[in-house]
Amino acid sequence: RSHNLRNIVPDSSIHSTNILSSSIHSGKNVQASLNRDQNDNDITIEFNSIVIDVNSYQNQTFPATTNSVQTNHPFELDKALPPKMATPLSVLIPEYTPPDRHTRSSRIINEYHQYINDLKSVLPHVGPIAFANNIWKDVSAHHIICLSLYTFTMNFEFVSLPISFHLFHEQKLSSNIQAFFEHERDRFNLNTRILAGITIDNGPDLKSVASYNILGPRFACLAHCLNLTVHHGLSLWEKPNAKKYPFDSAHHEIIDSLINDEDDELTSDFLPNISSISLGGRCQTNIQMELFIKEPSEHSHVPDPNRLHIVRLKNKLKERSASSDEGGTTILVDVLRKVPLSVSANLPTNEALLQTIRRERPAIQLDHNDRLPLILRQTDRGENFIFYEDESMVIFTCDKNLLILNQCKHWFMDGTFSICPKSYYQLFTVHGMYSSQIIPLVYVLLIGKDTNDYNKFFEQLMLHYDYDPESILVDFESGTLKSTKAIFPDAIQIGCLFHFGQCLWRELQLLGLQKKYIDDDKFRINVKKLMSLAFVPVNDVIKGYSLIINDFDAEDYDLLNYFERVWVGQKKGRGSRRGKPKFSLQLWDIYERVIQDLSRSNNAVEGWHHAFNNRVSIKHPSITKLAKCILREQSRFEIDTERLRAGG
């Protein structure tokens, strides 16, 4: 392939190499499959036919090893080059002495690495790249995979370059193919390249891996599709499977519609139904197919007018499951509502229909390093979305989000737990007020909720911008409060008004006063007066509290003791001085927020968390499912932020 490499880019300094040059004449017919592991250590070549150029070996001596070949390569390559290869040469030229197997294998390895190095030097200078992939089994039932690269030369000549062969001994084919694609992408530095796509056959393992877009979008191999049509549709080689490929009244409607369609277009109603159709009839003709030797036999089928309703039902299930995060049962119940009752007896079981939904949602697997695959590491618009990741946290955000966050003067933070993967403690989010709208900008999975967890997160965030928010609204959670105070010392910390009232209500429940709160109007009004202190100027809070406590009964002492200990401070001695409460007055007083018409609570964030939990739809999902849902939120809010930026 060296001539192709030289023509791809101008003035290339690519060596004139062949994968078997100086060992096997490059102009002869060589059929070989070269198999390499992910670390370029294990290389095997299986030769089907080889023609040796005698002149390249005559009167030459070869060292046992050449160049920089490592001596720790296994002997598979040596075994693939048996001594019997030289037998025809010794007959033709008695004085010919061939190199030993180790020398031949060493040279082949050297040439292979030289070819790969040449290819790496060329790829940065070429335009869009496409790939093709094929997979087959050897005589030992091991899978062999081949990956080829396609592009154009400077003269617009089509170029095909094989880049990798690999032999899989393991059983988990799908995960191995995924690791293989990711390894080749990284090995040739293709992460930032324009990848036009990859053509593969219709095998389930390849289709599953191709859905990750590791090497670009998937294109089905036309030859393979035609082969399936001939094999199953025309039933040339075997009797058709009537259960798997039925021919009934639904197909009659399809065929009639296609015959009468003047535009020759397939509508969406019919495309999913045109699988493989077999009539079950037989006839015999002469070789020229001009005369019937035996007339066509009659085919018969039971009319089934409900068949089309079932096909349409399955199509709707597939469409809904592929385009939404709704639960499978929710989708099924909603779609079944519109199915005619006459079809009910012919419907598949609910479990079979749920399986149809699950097939349209193949689980995205982590890569071989237990990290999120590329398809979950970028936004739908191609921007990197994994800001930082290690054993303790994964931060989801992008440069555009961080730029907006740096422009936001008011931040809002909260955590949610039920949709967090089991290996993490919470999904913590940072929202910013942008053009009077509160939008999520940073998502982080944390393994805990202590100060160190938050500190590590905020320290990573501060590496990108020197953020300087005016205010940060958070819950009354000690870890978050301590961390935000340490990392953002100039920001005003504000506690959520809703959680302030929630704390009071929980204390009422602990003290057994909830029944009194419901039945006693005076007591209920007094408790609400305590809550209303959050709207009083900070300097007047203690004065207002002193007036309110006179209206409480003596039996309410425990509640007042709690309020002083946590919110206003307990009295010291006989004077008016009070000790330091657990939460300072400035933290829970929202008088200034009301004056500035700023949000008093995290209700907007809580509302988003509630809606997001519903969209995830299950508790403790896998990290891949959660990442997919976060990416969908990101895509939605990207549109919202652009509208806000444009003044919409």
TrEMBL record:
Q: Which domain of life is it from?
A: Eukaryota
Q: Which residues form the MULE transposase domain?
A: 411-500
The cross-references to InterPro entries, in alphabetical order and at most eight, read: MULE_transposase_dom, RNaseH-like_sf
Coiled-coil segments on the chain, per record: none
The protein's name in its UniProt record: MULE transposase domain-containing protein
Q: Which organism is it from?
A: Rotaria sordida
